[in-house]
Amino acid sequence: MKTFKVLTLLAVLVVLSAFAVNKIGNKGGSQGYVIGDIATDFSLKNVDGTPVSLSDYDDAKGFIVVFTCNTCPFSVANEDRINALDAKYKNAGYPVIAINPNNPEAKPGDSYEEMIVRAKEKQFTFPYLLDEGQKVYPSYGATKTPHVYLLQKTAKGNEVKYIGAIDDNSRNASAVKERFLENAVNALLEGKEIAVKETKAIGCSIKV
Predict the structure, then answer these.
(1) According to DSSP H, which parts of the chain are helical?
(2) How much is the pTM?
């Protein structure tokens, strides 16, 4: 009987250990947000030198948070799409907030100085923020650039409503057949349930 109890205890410990390992993901030790979670606010430096927080947007209904960068070919291929999303949804209450999660020491082309240059070249209409110290992207659970999180303002806070890719073709905008993010934002604006709440983000790994 004593042996059985010991074996049972060991089995429980193994299960708990496996669960703990499964929860360890990006820098920070968490897999990040899942649908329905409340996203914590942040304060990050924009390319114009000013700090930006979600709480700055009093009139917003939510946010399109995009983890992106200068150097990833997938991110570059999506820059015009991100600009278009901001133009389409900012006045409807869902502005784009872009965050560069890469460590500039590992990827010099993603330095703050290079972000300023890129934002000017592409005429970004949205904030382009540096995740200095790489503290924000782990809390979200972002693993790729680009990686999108659609948030909706609720009584509880900024609720995560969609996670994943912008659409079904990260490389070629002209070949897109399904616009996952746009469909999700449109559903929220129409007061409907989002049909596809999660997709796989396709892009470059975040550089640490």
Answers:
(1) 2-23, 73-89, 112-121, 137-140, 180-189
(2) 0.85
